[in-house]
Write a structure and sequence with these properties.
The chain is α+β, with helices and mostly antiparallel strands. Helices cover 52% and strands 8% of the residues. Strands 1, 2, 3, 5, 6 and 9 form a six-stranded mixed β-sheet that branches. Strands 4-8-7 form a three-stranded antiparallel β-sheet, with no helix packed on it.
Length: 717
């Protein structure tokens, strides 16, 4: 009541907040620009000079940072790109995309969902002509890089990323010849319908059925329960005309498990759902909203026998089921996607740390220099370095690991197709599962950590962190819950150790299971910058955790062991994945010795050591637990990290430059290569739709009736 009376009270005749007549002056020149009188300008000029004297130019700051580098960033950029040809190809592609209006990202951060969907779809549809215009030797590689630079999954994402690869990998030759040309010409748009309302990670629990009708030589695809509704497939909500549907195959009353079927779900002429198909969009998500994730139900939908992809398993005309030569070979698409997630983890970690480091290099805050008056660059605060430089090092480690994962997957593809050799599938499945979990967890956390180092400006969409996190975060939960995927790796570790105890040697990445010394090489006098000694410490931890989990497991079956001792086995799987990442980083460093200058090699060595030592410091309890190192050595490791941070500091700008991430891809006001942060922020918000007029939405009915009662004339004070 008291507040209401204050609102109703009349304003005093003299309002201390009123502006004087001089302040209300709005003189304009012939071009409409406001004119400030000479007296006012002269009065303010000395105080402006004081501020300007202690203000730095962020572009100049970043230029000076690059000049400090101890190595040639271009040399490292070429190496990371895979050679000069790949480096030049990426430059040409970026040039094409930044000069083609169809790929413009201007105003993207202010788009509503329908605008973002349309913008992204337009970009994807422009890809074929853009690729063709370049006339490169490998158009598929060009298209892949262009999709990477677009950096926005859209309605066609699963068509390109899962629908086509599934047909390619699991269809027979006849099916590939029929479907792939149609896919490439966009005569159909496909999605991959696996996840259901009631099941995601547990594939054997999927409830959609495909029952074979021998009389008509057709399958009947059906959603028998509410929880069998397909839920989440990208492109399903509005875009797709077809879907690879993962369904339980039933022939002659026998359940043969989950198999892939190509099913048309919308009419190609009208885009209306076909009879028996109920389809829609699942609504806005926390992010990822250029993708029309959808739902799909089947009501006794008939499809031809050849709708089943028969590259591995098949059903004869009479209903006889012919199984795949190797169990779970039909999981190939999932393995591909998980491998792809590992590869993308490196890319998005690079993106986040590039934005954050560039901004931290030009942002100045507090602790002004007594002589120049310049405030301290944020990157010079040790906490910023301890946050960002380990992420920088991990991005390099993930890059090396993604190369390993890529080679592993494509070698399996080649051997399984040409030689019918599926022997590498268990290791590939276990490795891709564990690394998908390990890398996606780390990358999600790294993006947010990078944002936090950028203060309030990092929270703006224009910074690029929001969309990067929203786009990347689903990696943690799609294509398998990460904890469950760790158990897939753990199950493989348990089986491998049991085989080793029976005399079967493990694969290279598991040789640590042979046993390890109870004291570390670091404790026995090895240098804290001996990367092999650091790797040995990672191997010892993995060996210990796997061995201890195996002991408590006893004779339990792998499935029972994972259920009863789940937490312990997840820990063992994480330790194994950390070892695999460190192993590949050290291996890549060794292979690089003869390919780069001594200066570049020195920088890479610091990154290898920083990654290894920070990984130990962050999980020190696991190394201290069995006395592998002691408290004194733990303190020495921490001090060595601080030394490495100070040594890496002069190379920070050059190191993120070496990632070769184009401004078009970064799409960040904070992370652009020229460092002109504040101008970009100011100019880009001028074009925001919310700034098109000065009155806010609802002004006439909500604010104007109240504000118009105010009388702010010339003050009499």
């Amino acid at each position: 009541a008291h507040l209401a009376s204050l609102i109703r009270a009349e304003r005093p005749a003299t309002d201390p907040t009123s502006r004087t007549s001089a302040m209300l002056d709005d003189s304009r020149d012939g071009r409409g620009h406001r004119v400030v009188d000479a007296h006012t300008r002269a009065l303010v000029e000395p105080s402006s000079d004081v501020i300007a004297a202690s203000t730095s130019d962020p572009k100049e700051d970043l230029r000076l940072e690059r000049a400090r580098a101890s190595f040639n960033s271009r040399e490292l950029e070429v190496l990371l790109a895979g050679g000069k040809d790949n480096y030049k190809l990426r430059q040409r592609i970026a040039s094409v995309m930044t000069t083609n209006e169809a790929f413009s990202k201007r105003g993207k951060y202010f788009d509503e969902r329908d605008e973002l969907y349309e913008r992204t779809l337009r970009m994807y549809l422009a890809l074929p002509s853009a690729v063709a215009s370049m006339n490169e030797k490998e158009p598929i590689a060009v298209a892949r890089i262009m999709r990477e630079l677009i950096d926005e999954p859209g309605g066609l994402d699963l068509h390109l990323g899962m629908f086509i690869p599934t047909i390619q990998g699991q269809g027979d030759e006849e099916q590939r010849k029929y479907w792939i040309p149609k896919c490439v010409k966009l005569e159909c748009v496909g999605t991959y319908a696996q996840t259901e309302l009631g099941h995601g990670t547990y594939l054997r629990g999927l409830e959609t059925t495909a029952t074979y009708d021998e009389e008509r030589e057709e399958f009947v695809v059906h959603s028998p329960t509410l929880t069998s509704t397909k839920w989440w497939p990208g492109g399903l909500g509005k875009t797709s005309t077809h879907a690879v549907v993962m369904a339980r195959l039933f022939t002659k009353g026998v359940d043969h498990g989950v198999h892939p079927f190509v099913v048309q779900i919308r009419d190609n002429k009208t885009h209306e759902p076909l009879p028996g198909c109920t389809i829609g969009d699942i609504g806005n998500k926390m992010g990822y909203n250029a993708v029309d994730n959808g739902f799909l139900r089947f009501d006794h939908v008939r499809v031809p026998r050849r709708a089943m992809l028969m590259g591995h398993s098949k059903v004869e005309r009479d209903g006889t089921y012919v199984p795949a030569p190797v169990a779970k070979v039909s999981y190939g698409t999932m393995v591909f996607i998980r491998s792809d997630i590992v590869m993308n983890a490196a890319l998005y970690m690079k993106k986040a740390v590039t934005i954050a480091i560039r901004y931290n290099l030009v942002r100045r805050q507090s602790n002004a220099d007594e002589v120049t008056g310049m405030e301290c660059q944020v990157i010079d605060y040790q906490h910023s370095q301890r946050t960002l430089f380990p992420i920088l090092a991990k991005a390099f480690a993930f890059h090396c690991t993604s190369d390993y994962m890529r080679r592993m997957y494509f070698e399996f593809q080649r051997d399984s197709r040409e030689k019918k050799d599926f022997s590498a599938l268990p290791e590939l499945h276990a490795t891709s599962s564990g690394l998908k979990a390990y890398c996606s967890w780390a990358t999600k956390d790294a993006i947010e950590a990078c944002r936090l180092t950028c203060g309030g400006h990092g929270y703006m969409n224009l910074a690029g962190f929001g969309t990067t996190l929203a786009t990347y975060a689903p990696n943690v939960t799609y294509e398998g819950d990460n904890n469950v995927l760790c158990l897939q790796t753990a199950r493989y570790l348990l089986k491998a150790q049991r085989k080793m105890l029976n005399g079967q040697p493990p694969v290279d990445a598991l040789r640590y299971l042979d046993g390890a010394s109870s004291r570390s090489a670091l404790a026995l006098g090895a240098s804290l910058r001996d990367e092999k000694a650091i790797l040995d410490a990672y191997a010892h931890r993995a060996w210990r955790l796997v061995t201890e989990a195996s002991k408590v497991t006893g004779d339990l079956s792998p499935d029972e062991a994972m259920r009863v001792h789940m937490v312990q086995w997840i820990g063992a799987a994480k330790a194994h994945c950390a070892f695999v990442v460190m192993y590949n980083f050290v291996l890549a460093y060794d292979e690089t010795r003869s390919r780069v200058s001594a200066e570049t090699l020195n920088v890479l060595h610091r990154l290898v050591c920083l990654h290894g030592l920070c990984g130990m410091d962050d999980t020190m309890g696991e190394f201290l637990e069995d006395g592998h190192i002691d408290g004194e050595q733990a303190a020495e490791i921490r001090q060595e990290i601080f030394k490495l941070l100070s040594e890496i500091r002069p190379d920070a700008a050059a190191l993120v430059d070496s990632f070769g991430l184009h401004d078009y891809f970064l799409n960040s006001a904070l992370g652009a290569k020229d460092g002109d942060v504040y101008r970009r922020l100011y100019e880009e918000v001028q074009a925001a739709p919310f700034n098109r007029k000065h009155t806010p939405p609802g002004y006439t009915e909500l604010l104007q009736p109240k504000l118009s009662r105010g009388n702010f004339g010339v003050s009499k004070l």
